[in-house]
């Protein structure tokens, strides 16, 4: 004999309230939607509307150049330890991006150049390879920690979900050029190695030895490699 459950209107109302609250919290995890056509960022600290950490330029003084950037066709300097260069297109480069919830980046990779495992905590990313061959991948959150990986060629596109650890690696003998678009005007960038072993002040050795199951000498070595003085 099946047992039926009787729920009071008060209980049902509380359940609906909790669901709506959860949905609201999810919605607020992304950039807030603008309530005006645009808020062109202004460097001068003058009285005015302050949105997303920026003062808004007088709308009557806004012009097309506030939404424009040139030079993204120029390759970046890839003579560094990772063999990669990133040309950001965010609010400092295009003031009109403020409040629009988007940004982009041009990425150049030398042969075997790497964008090390990192996260963009505030934005999802969609990447398009314009030239070369690029190995990409991301890892899902606990408890699965599944790796999704793909080798991309010219014209291929790959998506990295918000907040997940991901990477890009040039596996070819020629340079790679790619463009990424992100769903935030400030997606953030947290390189795992720099964040864990290059923090200021350093994370306690005992924490890292236990977390990574390595000895303190290796922790000290890694901290010396990723200290801010070496970057």
Q: What is the CA-CA span between the terminal residues?
A: 70 Å
Domains (count): 2
* CATH architecture descriptor of the largest domain: Sandwich
What is the fold named in CATH at topology level of the largest domain? Answer: Jelly Rolls
What strand order characterises the main sheet? 4-5-12-7-10
Could you explain the architecture of this structure?
By secondary structure, the chain is an alpha+beta fold. It has 2 domains: 148 residues, Sandwich (Jelly Rolls); 42 residues, no CATH class. Helix content is 19%, strand content 28%. The chain contains 4 helices and 13 strands. Strands 4-5-12-7-10 form a 5-stranded antiparallel beta sheet, with no helix packed on it. The longest helix is centred in the first third of the chain and has 19 residues. The protein starts with 8 loop residues before the first helix and ends in a 6-residue tail after the last helix. The N terminus is likely disordered.
